[in-house]
Design brief:
Number of helices: 6
Distance between the termini: 96 Å
Strand content: 25-35%
Order of helices and strands: EEHEHEEEHEEHHH
Number of strands: 8
Structural class: alpha/beta
Shape: elongated
Radius of gyration: 26 Å
């Protein structure tokens, strides 16, 4: 059964229903993400479901697809960034469960889970730390350091003392 997206879900109810949620979220509704990308109208395609994980623990699994525009740190121009991310998160797992199952966890507030925040977190984690075009020629003023430029002859400030040492 497929249902329309909403922002908040009651975890216990959704796990019992085995519903699959699929739809799109406006980029403008994700404020933290909007501050990390170049503002543009767009949507993020998501699908997710609440279920029991393979470890018989409440979990949410899903998939996110988005085409975002980020700033290249080499040329400061816009750069397309494709997000195609699967996720599986245990819900309200203890520290022991997280270590045992080697999965990340998300925590609900009084049994309710804000899926927009979860999706936003997953996208932020999928963004590169330093976004740059693959082609280094995107900035005509940027040159990679060559080894010959890195070896710089420095004057030794104690060279004068060396010459005075031999005079006495």
């Amino acid at each position: 059964m497929q249902a329309r997206l909403q922002q908040t879900y009651r975890v216990s109810q959704e796990i019992g229903r085995n519903a699959i949620f699929k739809g799109s979220i406006e980029l403008s509704k994700l404020q933290r993400l909007s501050s990390l990308v170049i503002p543009q109208p767009g949507t993020i395609q998501v699908s997710f479901e609440f279920n029991q994980s393979a470890f018989q623990h409440p979990a949410v699994t899903g998939h996110i697809e988005a085409e975002l525009s980020v700033e290249c740190q080499r040329c400061l121009g816009p750069m397309a960034q494709t997000i195609d991310q699967d996720f599986e998160l245990l819900i309200d797992a203890s520290d022991e469960d997280i270590q045992t199952f080697q999965l990340d966890s998300v925590y609900s507030e009084e049994g309710y889970l804000d899926m927009f925040a979860v999706i936003e977190d997953e996208i932020i984690l999928a963004l590169p730390l330093v976004a740059m075009h693959e082609d280094e020629a995107c900035n005509p003023h940027w040159r990679p350091d060559t080894e010959s430029e890195q070896v710089v002859e420095k004057n030794n400030p104690f060279a004068v003392l060396e010459s005075l040492k031999g005079q006495s």
